[in-house]
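Let us practice reading a record.
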Amino acid sequence: MGTPSPLLHPRYWPSWLAIGLLRLIAALPYPLIMGIGHGVGVLLYVFALRRRQIAGINLQLCMPALDDKQRSALVRTHFIALGKGLVEVPMAWWWPQARLEKRLLQVEGLEHLPAPDDTRGTIFLTAHFSSLELSGRYLGARCPSYAMYRPNENPVLERLIQRFRGRHLLGIIARNDARGMIQALKKGGRVWFAPDQNYAHKGKVFADFMGVPAATHTATSRFARSSGARVIPFVLFRIAGGYRLRIEAPLADFPGDDPQQDAERINALFASWVRTAPEQYNWIHRRFKTRPDGGPPPYPARRPKHR
């Protein structure tokens, strides 16, 4: 008998159970899937106290005009959007394209996509909205692309992410594989990239994001400059009964001479999307963890792990 796969070790059984549940959810009617997502979001809101605090702090920083009641209501609807985003993952992985297309109710900007015979590389620039997994599937159906992503620490999830994203995209590129990204772009590839998270390493600038200085990766500028790729923004919004895909015109005169100005420009673009659907943006991420003065982040400290 052969050696059993390490992914079948009992420590991974909960992961397999969760995947099985997601697979069952994918077979349900769309309204019921969204209803389950709503319920999951409410549970997350109730039990994920620290993430709820992080979302509230981010909204207090980025939307100071909201009063306490408005901010609390937005945090709750945000968690509901997160729950719906979770149950959209099995849709992105297992739904046939024809079924997905029935839920794409609005598409804007198809004229901005490169022609099939266009040999210039393209960075599809996006941000962490709750329908991110679906957005890649919808974009890939219209313009075959690679995805740049952060590898998952759970080997079961990592195996499935590679399998299912690879099935519907040209491939995936680890976010620390800058060389692979640039090589794909130089060969005329199209890669979707979401650089809107806190970046504490070399190559960052502090660029305004909704009135707050945010440690921002300058990789978009560097990738575009090194490869000669165009940058086309795109985003998927969840609307009543389905989704709206927006593809915007390629960024003109990008990259510029100043990475700081490029970062400010990208953050301003993301902020405009956030104002369109604020509950769907990823507010539970510690976007302002790294501060310009080196001071402590505005978020509650993690509880120490008991040994």
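A brief commentary: The radius of gyration is 20 Å.
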